[in-house]
Specification:
By secondary structure, this protein is an all-alpha fold. Helix content is 56%, strand content 3%. Strand 2 and strand 3 form a beta hairpin.
């Protein structure tokens, strides 16, 4: 008698299920380790630019100077938006629209202005990845200015992506410190394994849909407060503490006693300190000293100690990034779009990897509903 087939593996939320192989990033949740293609995130955040990391994720190796110059020039040349997309942001996007919804719609529109959209040639998809990465900061900055009644600032088409984004957002060139912090923050958020938005991206890509469709779906997944929206909730909590007049310790204990969740702590993968959080913590302290405002750093540190003592949880990447962006003067609801500005490199790298040896991603679901139902006359229902 033949052996019966093994029972399918089930896991709520697919926790612990290995769905595919990847060469893009490695996460050791027990040790708090994160690697992009073999490079430790701490090394990359300190010694590599966002453009270098984008090249690494897309190509598998860090660029030499000529390769970096070529990619930087390509990104600079692709930052401008089609007039039709700008007109949509001006005239058809409500001023009070959710910032991620505005980004999702504008990103989807870009597909209609790219001659390579429907091609599955690797070079064409690589050009798509560059265009998406270049244009996403322009969308976010334009949306923010338009809703404030200001004219969008055209990209300079020079300097780093971090530089041009802050320039388009504020209408003036950023200082070196602000540019460096933004660049490092983009490096930290660029890639993180098979998280919800990346998995969404690869599932859509596995159908052989186009890159713009897959990225639009990923933006939709990132919009959720349990994924990219968590840092907004962190900043709301910090502001609530400030306005309540309570000490951070008392505030945390009160929330925990009421069985309320405090955003920014714990992680599905990391069982210790998220390595990105350590880097952002140090960035926050340095920025706080530069601006002579240590309130957010000290409040965050107290919260971190209280939550760890009470629950044994460590802060994740969202916890300190919220205060960093706040001190840079960035609107709270732009925190998640900034996440997308960075993660677009990881999403598109996963799509390039998926298409190298594509197989439709199609998991099973265990049916747990009723059986034996019959259709009765409608009058008796």
């Amino acid at each position: 008698m033949a052996d019966s087939a093994p029972a399918p593996v089930k896991s709520r939320g697919l926790e612990g299920v290995v769905a595919l192989d990847t060469e893009l990033s490695y996460i050791n949740g027990q040790e708090g380790e994160l690697l992009y293609r073999g490079y430790d995130i701490k090394d990359l955040a300190k010694n590599a630019s966002f453009e270098e990391v984008a090249y690494l994720l897309w190509n598998g190796n860090l660029p030499n100077q000529q390769q970096l110059d070529e990619l930087t020039a390509q990104l600079q040349a692709e930052r401008a938006l089609p007039n039709e997309v700008l007109d949509h942001l001006r005239h058809h996007t409500p001023k009070d629209a959710n910032s991620m919804s505005a980004l999702r719609t504008a990103t989807s529109m870009l597909a209609d202005f790219d001659a390579d959209t429907e091609s599955h040639d690797r070079e064409a998809n690589y050009r798509n990845a560059i265009r998406l990465t270049a244009k996403m900061p322009t969308i976010v900055a334009a949306f923010d200015r338009i809703r404030k009644g200001l004219e969008p600032v055209a990209p300079k088409g020079e300097g780093s992506m971090a530089y041009d984004f802050l320039y388009m957002l504020n209408g003036e060139a950023p200082g070196e410190r602000a540019e460096a912090i933004m660049d490092a923050a983009l490096v930290l958020h660029a890639e993180h394994g098979l998280n919800a938005s990346t998995f969404t991206c690869r599932v859509i890509g596995s159908t052989l849909s186009d890159m713009y469709s897959a990225v639009t779906g990923a933006i939709g997944a990132l919009k959720g407060p349990l994924h990219g929206g968590a840092n907004i909730k962190v900043m709301e909590t910090l502001l609530d503490i400030q306005q309540s007049g309570k000490t951070p310790a008392a505030y945390v204990r009160e929330k925990l006693d009421a069985k309320e969740k405090i955003m920014g702590f714990g992680h599905r993968v990391y069982k210790t300190y998220d390595p990105r959080a350590i880097i952002l913590r140090d960035m926050l302290e340095g920025l706080s000293d530069e601006k002579n405002d240590r309130y957010w750093y000290e409040t965050s540190r107290t919260m971190m100690e209280e939550v760890h003592d009470a629950k044994g949880l460590y802060p994740n990447v969202d916890f300190f990034s919220a205060s960093v962006y706040y001190l840079l003067g960035i609107e709270r609801d732009l925190y998640t779009p900034i996440f997308a500005i960075s993660r677009i490199t990881g999403w598109t790298a996963h799509l390039l990897e998926q298409w190298e040896d594509n197989r439709l991603i199609r998991p099973r679901a265990e049916y747990v509903g009723p059986r034996g139902e019959t259709v009765g006359p409608i009058a008796g229902r």
